[in-house]
C-alpha cells in the first residue's frame, strides 16, 4: 500500500442477490484529505461506508482502510477510525463530561490522558459552564460539535462522518466545517457524506455515486469546469440525469 493513502478501493462490490448496492467502485483517499462521498438516497453510500468501517464484508474487489484489509482486519480498522452518525450518537442522559470519559474509555485512552484531553476539549469548545449539564439539554449545534470532538478524541487516522450537519443552521454548519479543517490540518483524514451541495465545495475532492457506481471523481472546481457549470448542484443534477461519466 502507498504510505500516503488512507483508503484504497479497487473494484469494490456489494451484491444482494441480483442487486448491486455497490458496483465495482474504485478510488483512493490521501492522508489528511477531506474527501466528500456524495449521492442520492439509495445510491450506495451507506453500504460502501459500512464496508470501509469494518461493519460489513464486500462481495468482491479489494479495499484497505488505514492500511488494514476490509476482509481480514476489520477489528484493526475499527480501532484506527472514528465515526459520527447522522443520528446523534451520544448519551443524552449523561453529562458532557461523562460522555467524553465514557467514550475515551471505549476507545482505549488511558485515564491520565483522558483527563488531560478533556480539559483541552472543554476549553476549545467553550463548554466550561456546560460541562456538568446533561447532553440532552444542549442545543443541537453544540451536540453535533461535541459528537464530532468525541469521534476524534482518540486521535484516529480516519474519521467517517455520515451527514454530520443535518438539521443544524447555516452558521453552525460553517463552524462545524472549521472544526473539520482543524482536524484535517492535524493529520486526520476526513471521509464525509453530505446532501448539502455547498458543503461539497469545502472538500478537497469528491466522488458522486449514482446507482451503486462512482460516476464522478475530482475536485469540485475541476468537476464544475468539466460539466461547464457554476455550482455543484448543477453537477449533481446532470449526473442524476445520466450525463457522461467523468473520472480523473
From TrEMBL:
Which superkingdom is the protein from? Bacteria
InterPro entries according to UniProt: AAA+_ATPase (IPR003593), ABC_transporter-like_ATP-bd (IPR003439), P-loop_NTPase (IPR027417)
PROSITE patterns associated with the record: ABC_TRANSPORTER_2
Q: Which residues form the ABC transporter domain?
A: 7-236
Alphabetical list of SUPFAM superfamilies matching this protein: P-loop containing nucleoside triphosphate hydrolases
Gene3D superfamilies per record: P-loop containing nucleotide triphosphate hydrolases
Protein's UniProt keywords contain Nucleotide-binding: yes
UniProtKB keywords: ATP-binding, Nucleotide-binding
Q: What's one Pfam family here?
A: ABC_tran
* GO molecular function ontology, one term from the record: ATP binding
Q: What is this protein called?
A: ABC transporter ATP-binding protein
This protein's species is Dyadobacter subterraneus
